[in-house]
Amino acid sequence: MMHIAVAGNIGSGKTTLTELLSKHYKFKSMYEAMDNNPYINSFYEDMRRWSFNLQIYFLNTRFRQILEIRKAGKSVVQDRTIYEDAYIFAPNLHTMGLMTSRDFDNYASLFELMLPFLQAPDLLIYLRADIPSLVRQIQMRGREYENSIRLDYLKSLNERYEQWASGYNLGKLLVIDVDELDFKNNPQDLGNIIEKVNANINGLF
Which residues are CB-neighbours of 84 under 8 A, at least 6 positions away? Predict the structure, then answer.
């Protein structure tokens, strides 16, 4: 059983790479629960009001994913991890004043209870992208609820991703700069990523 997870900011290409890697390796793919997310539209309309609800929803669904991965006993490629919710998105909302300290402490306490049941991915792939690249990708995919994403929100998330990645020690980490890549449409770009993934996977055995 192999667990590969793809991490990165909004618009970095996580879902696309998850799909491509799962097809290449014939692994099961697990995606973020976005289409049926009951809070996402409300969150982008009023972040302060709905931040706690949204983060609890993500914490719940991603913990369920982890249980499903264990139960299935199959190799998977996962789109975003529970660690990003807990160490990047929730603290970022709190720091920006978009989640109260009371709610954040409640969230952090719940995540702490989950920690003993978590198992980090065998390989974490972090897609690093600058703000113009993220904005371009967000605009291209045309999700209506993302039209109101604030640039300072993306920027602060990017900063937290860099801090988190620099200190990541839960398993193997592969950092890919995606600003100049088009792995969705360019087979050579995808092939180069797969070569790097293979090198890391082979080192796990």
Answer: 7, 161, 164
